[in-house]
Write a structure and sequence with these properties.
By secondary structure, the chain is of the alpha/beta class. The chain is built from 15 helices and 20 strands. The strands form 5 sheets. Strands 8-2-1-12-20-19 form a 6-stranded mixed β-sheet, with helices on both faces. A 6-stranded mixed β-sheet has the order 6-5-15-16-17-14. A 3-stranded antiparallel β-sheet has the order 3-7-4.
């Protein structure tokens, strides 16, 4: 009979969420075995061309702090204090993420973060990693699976195996569950800019037929991600097309980089079923993959780890109830995040070039300075707080209605005037 204070979890997938969850569960005294088909990230070369750099925001940082890992991770990061936009015409301009200097993101390479999480997790009592060990023949009812020529029979199988999860496929097999998978017509290629001016910012090159974003690295280089329609990404004159669409993006050996690096795909995943009777549970992309345009995929997966661990700790003797509580707390908000991420694609591609949209952003900036306790831009609530995504969207829609009712121009003028009066009365 299982000792409910020492549950045996088998985590399928040693990516970011799987490794962090191992830290949380081991901290509660559980046994955690993590299986990964790929090689150990500490010895394998980085998967160049496939890995989009990541932006750690408040949710991810909070999860790492709670696990005692933020200080170790932070040494591998570069602060990003806003967006540095490179328009097709005109001078580049900087747009801060928020009014507060602390409202920043941190850029980090995926491989650096993965190594740090695995190194920390493996030192904990009860945690084991099995790299180069594919998982097959998953049985949700036993639960069991085949790995390394053996039949593994844990108490719980955790599906942390990404957007194309094998654990999810078995969980849904023969069940009356909704499942939705949406591919964006645009794909991406990763590129590299060896050195650039050291700006603590996310670089953005917006365009109708192409979009490029770039994260700074600790060595002063930029990891660039070029997004384009799939048909354009495979055209024979791609380098010339990129230069025509994004003339401000000047990368060395552009043709060579485009030829060497593969095309990546962007997918959103939603499923109505996240768990099965206390035996199987999903986290991260396995249950809610999103497009990368809000930078929240990893951050929301780290939130999953926190909430799932809390639910297990609250009801270790009834994992069915624990997993149900976890899904109730998370799914409504990750569904909202999927919509926000799709919408932010349009923001980065189109709206950053719109004077009207930038004016609307200015309204939020001014009003958030004037009313710091009651008015927050949507981006601030999503990226710089741990407010549930659904609550952030609800508040943002209320604020939008207020601005529309008052007229944006009038709102800007009134807010600016009130702010000017306040600053004169209370100079800093």
């Amino acid at each position: 009979m299982r000792d409910d204070l020492n549950i045996h979890f088998a985590v399928v997938g040693a990516g970011l969420a799987g490794s962090l969850l191992a830290v949380y569960l081991a901290g509660q005294g559980h046994r955690v075995d993590v299986y990964e088909r790929r090689a150990d990230p500490r010895v394998a070369p980085p998967d160049e061309g496939r890995s989009i750099n990541l932006g750690l925001s408040a949710r991810g940082i909070g999860a790492l702090r709670k696990a005692g890992l933020w200080d170790a991770v932070r040494t591998h990061t570069v602060p990003m204090r806003g967006r540095y936009v490179h328009p097709r015409e005109g001078r580049p301009f900087f747009h801060p993420y928020g009014r507060d200097p602390g409202e920043i993101l941190y850029s980090i390479r995926r491989d650096a973060l993965s190594r740090t999480l695995v190194e920390h997790a493996e030192k904990l009592a009860g945690v084991r990693f099995f790299f180069g060990t594919p998982v097959t023949a998953i049985d949700r009812d036993a639960p069991s699976f085949q790995a390394g020529g053996e039949t593994i029979t844990p108490d719980v199988i955790v599906g942390a195996d990404g957007a194309f999860s094998a654990v999810r496929a078995e969980l849904l097999r023969g069940r009356p569950a909704d499942f939705r998978q949406e591919f964006l017509p645009w794909g991406y290629k990763e590129l590299h800019l060896p050195y650039t001016e050291r700006l603590e910012a996310l670089h953005v090159w917006p365009g109708d037929q192409g979009l490029m974003v770039a994260h700074p690295n600790v060595d002063g280089s930029l990891t660039c991600t070029l997004f384009m329609d799939h048909d354009d990404l495979v055209r024979p004159d791609l380098a010339a097309f990129v230069k025509s669409v994004l003339p401000a993006a000047d990368l060395p050996d552009l043709a060579g980089q485009l030829a060497r690096n593969p095309v990546g795909h962007l997918v959103t995943v939603r499923t109505s079923k996240w768990h099965e009777d206390g035996r199987v549970v999903l986290i991260g992309d396995a249950c809610h993959a999103v497009y990368p345009f809000y930078g929240q995929g990893m951050n929301s997966a780290f939130e999953d780890c926190v909430v799932l661990a809390e639910c297990v700790e609250a009801r270790p003797g009834d994992l069915g109830a624990a997993f149900a509580a976890y899904q109730r707390r998370r799914k409504p908000h990750t569904d909202v995040l999927a919509d926000l991420s799709a919408d932010n694609f349009l923001e980065l591609r189109d709206r950053l070039r719109s004077p009207l949209h930038l004016a609307r952003k200015q309204v939020d900036t001014v009003l958030s300075r004037l009313l710091p306790d009651t008015w927050r831009p949507l981006y601030t609530m999503v990226s710089h707080t741990t407010m549930p995504y659904g609550e952030a969207l609800r508040r943002a829609r209320t604020q939008d209605r207020i601005v529309r009712a008052g007229g944006m121009t009038a709102a800007v003028g009134l807010a600016a005037a009130l702010l000017w009066r306040r600053d004169r009365r209370h100079p800093k």
